[in-house]
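Design a sequence for this backbone.
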């Protein structure tokens, strides 16, 4: 599957090509997630890796939304969108290519500990 390059920036991280963009959050949960109303969206060129990082989230509920299978342990992720607590990437209002690369490396790392899965409000999911 190919991904549209329209209005996206290209970045090469560790020999793999990704496309990224900042977009206004348009899904229904915008009012429930504390953010600036914008998110960083990153997708691999082949479409297997896809994450959304809302900008301006509060520290205690900061998470990424995983929409593809290329996030960390691929067996854990699949089906509907899933959310995981994460460290901060960039500032509240600006994102640089270095921040994008940092997010990609964190999201594709197999390093322990595995991030905590949370619901759309950033509360831990109980298995």
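Sequence:
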């Amino acid at each position: 599957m190919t991904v549209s390059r329209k209005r996206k920036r290209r970045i090469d991280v560790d020999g793999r090509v990704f496309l990224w963009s900042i977009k206004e959050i348009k899904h229904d949960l915008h009012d429930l997630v504390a953010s600036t109303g914008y998110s960083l969206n990153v997708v691999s060129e082949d479409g297997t890796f896809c994450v959304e990082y809302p900008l301006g989230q509060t520290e205690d509920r900061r998470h990424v939304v995983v929409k593809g299978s290329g996030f960390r342990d691929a067996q854990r992720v699949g089906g509907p969108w899933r959310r995981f607590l994460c460290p901060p990437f960039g500032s509240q209002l600006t994102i640089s290519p270095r921040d994008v690369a940092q997010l990609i490396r964190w999201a594709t790392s197999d390093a322990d500990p595995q991030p905590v899965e949370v619901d759309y409000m950033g509360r831990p999911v109980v298995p």
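The mean pLDDT is 81.
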